[in-house]
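retry 2 of 3: previous attempt timed out while embedding nicotinamide-adenine-dinucleotide. Reduced batch size to 1 and resubmitted. Inputs unchanged:
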Amino acid sequence: MKVLVYSTRGFERPYIDAANNSKHELSFISDSLSSATAIKAVGYDAISIFSSDEACFLTLEKLRSFGVKYISLRSVGYDNVNIKAAKREGIKVANVPAYSPYAIAEHAVALLLALNRKLIEANANIKRFNFDLNYLTGFDLNGKTVGIVGTGRIGSVMTKIMNGFGCTLLGYDVQEDNLLEERYGLQYVPLETLCENSDIISLHVPLNSDTHYMINEDLLDKMKPSCYLINTARGAVVNTEDLIKALESKSIAAYGMDVYENEKGLFFKDLSREIPEDDMLLKLIAMPNVLVTGHQAFLTTEALKNIAETTIYNLDCWEKGTTSDNEIIT
Ligand code: NAD
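retry 2 succeeded.
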């Protein structure tokens, strides 16, 4: 199968080549998919895209007219693809549903620990031979209440890890998992109750019409002023404008973010020689109690290997005329 791989980054190419083992005819480009770059897919049977690519109705219409029949996503989330439109255009879409929930949950913990124990400031101080400990006080995680919003694959791993730290666990999900209640004592509560009672809140829901701006002014107001909010899910699960107000008015204590609602066009690029035109992001980056990583929670060797292998597996299924179990059906 002839496949155009959009948004290829240097770090993933060796994993994709190894998984492909010369089976499919792959072409790699660094451009992200948009209605303007869809033209590059002329003559290809399939494309592979990442979460930074945009497969809206117009783009899908163009892809179909260029002969593209399949889209193999190199991500769990598929909020960037108009699935209904893809179905109408007869384009099959598959994702990588579980490449490594550990990678994301462990990154959420890394954000939490780095923020709480002031690791970034401490390291910067020490690089200047400043061994003063003032302003570096954190808190014990042991005994704290952690709210897990979305207790699916990643939220379950987060639950297990935070249970290991000796935390009390609250959960919120539209589908409750009894195993988490039995094993880790997680207690499912309404979202408002979770927000009111948690010392730490970690977000693990997909972005959809129900979760868009799920964390808004109302819920931020209900959180404890000492609350640490961690978002490794999707930027738009949080209303960023409301979040900035909450941080400015000290109605929450800190925010760890790997995702940002306007990250498209910014994240995954080296913009070190220009100032990003995004006042909300500049404000967040400037805040001492905000820690930003640029959508790198998935970036472990294990996850990259699994992403590459599942991406090729999805293409293999389509080439054989079978249905991949990872196909997204509305
Ligand atoms: P999952 O499908 O296993 O779990 C998601 C959970 O959210 C499910 O239990 C589901 O019932 C629940 N949920 C869905 N809609 C809800 C709603 N309206 N209210 C409450 N709960 C709801 O998915 P996962 O593998 O755990 O991944 C979760 C999300 O993490 C992905 O969709 C993706 O957006 C994000 N993610 C981020 C990165 C990263 O690099 N930062 C990497 C992978 C995944």
